[in-house]
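lol ok so funny story. i was supposed to be doing the assay writeup but got distracted and ended up predicting the structure for this chain instead. priorities right. anyway since i did it might as well share w the group, maybe its usefull for someone
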Amino acid sequence: MPNKKYEIRDFLEVKSANSSSFSFDGSKVAYLSNQSGSPQLYVMSSKGGQAEQITSYEDHISFAVFSPIKDEILFGKFVGGDEQTQFYLYSLLTKKTRALTDNPKVKYNFGQFSRDGKYISYSQNSRNGKDFDVYIMDMENGETKCVYDQGGSCHAINFSPKNTYLSMRKHHTNLDVDLYLISLNDNKAEWITKHEGQAYFGATSWLPDESAFFTISNKDRDFLGINRFDMSKREFTYVYTPDWDVDSAVVSHDGSLLSTIINEDGYWKLRLMKIGSMEEVNLTALPKTGLVYSARFSKDSKYLAMSVGDSLRTTDVWIYSLNDQQCWQLTNSSQGVPPEELVEPKLFRFTSFDGLQVPAFLYMPKVISAGKKIPVIINIHGGPESQYQPSFASLTQYFVYQGYAVIAPNVRGSAGYGKKYLALDDIEKRMDSVHDLASLHEHIKTIPQLDQNKVALMGGSYGGYMTLAGLAFYPDLWVAGVDIVGMANLVTFLENTASYRRSLREAEYGYLDKHMDLLRSISPINKIENVKAPLFIIHGANDPRVPLNEAEQMHEKLTALGRKVELLVYKDEGHGLAKLKNRLDAYPKVVKFLEEAFA
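and the output, tada:
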């Protein structure tokens, strides 16, 4: 329709499909789609056709994976955003679902099916609420067995092909992760990644004969590369080391191919290599548009199920036939606003206060009146060990469609640029990342179309903290702030976040028993009298990561100071807005708030 005027609902109601998993015989693909409003489980023939919706819960499905031997799908779900994931098994034959776990006070983290389908691996925190112990479950009788309970944030990964070992990751921090091999004969755990300093090790992917496995690691490197572990020598050897982070390393079931995703300056690139020579396979039929976010092999190693999308196109599932080099789009998720109406961001770098080059993505409206300067929204990602990447961002695209510029910076401490960059905001360096925002504000002067006097901050989780910190520590630079599930007080945040998260978060922000003065000094709540700009706060009542009290503190104190502040609380949400009905309620209010602030 020419000259159609799009509304915010057209942007927010965009659908997507991802998280694909092949059935044991490759004839079907399970995937998650938000077609009904929140991610639910669907199944479709791998050749295409009509999709069957399997689940229709009020709460979204967090993961789904086919059994390697049966037409059964194991999936996870939690209630109201509480993140206390429970496991369920759905049979395509009986059309019935049964619960595999049923303790809402316990959080279950799924690992993987064994290749013979007899077992699943997982971790759970029932012992003390803090430590995650590793278990296996017999899928025939439901019996469970604890195979590791020595403390720490432990995550089961996968079984070796002959069920000799179960691999496990232990997270000391989000940047320091070790691998263990648990012998399933006697439950003895072998620590195989001894190292000095911080090193990260990812999931394991085994060769069929158990002679070796592949993983991603940055031990002795700045960037994540692919490491091969020889079981007989008990030695790691790097086999692929690009000058960017490698996101994954997945071996085909027959052991002939290795797929990986490379993060090149924020853009995902699929690579497929022959194991042994590590010679790259030329994938001639990849979609001409879009980035590949993930790829999974079929059991016969002949197909890849991929999640493909980009800043202009929503995510969909595609199938790649490796034998005949053909590729087809399996799902066609509705996108109310066509790609030609949307904007692809441009990557640039700005110089921060200490000379550091900080990457950022700039979205500019398609049409800007001559001589007009446009308002700017700085959108800050969460994490902080995360990265803004140019995937489809519906609210951002609506802001740009309305005539605003949006800048999404990857301030120091972001992932994707090596572990040195990732550590630049740790503990006592926290305020350096906030200073990056001030430097970005200064850089806006150099872009003629942008109005440096009309800049707002917006972010979720850690991005919410950065929004609040920007308003509190650089109060004269911003005209407004939008905080979504952000931390206002790092002391109360660490005291009240879920116990299993505290030690991992203390390693990033500071330890309660060592850095109390620092934590207080970098908490926006303790500089709240400086805040001048109006603030809009959104929070979920069931948030286990950043408790609601963080938002309530900020709202209460700003109200007492007579500042303009609004708080929206959603009783059926957790760490963010997962449900379409709540996004449709909240985001138009955010738009109105920013319109008034920019007026």
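The two ends are 31 Å apart (CA to CA). The mean pLDDT is 95.
back to the writeup now i swear
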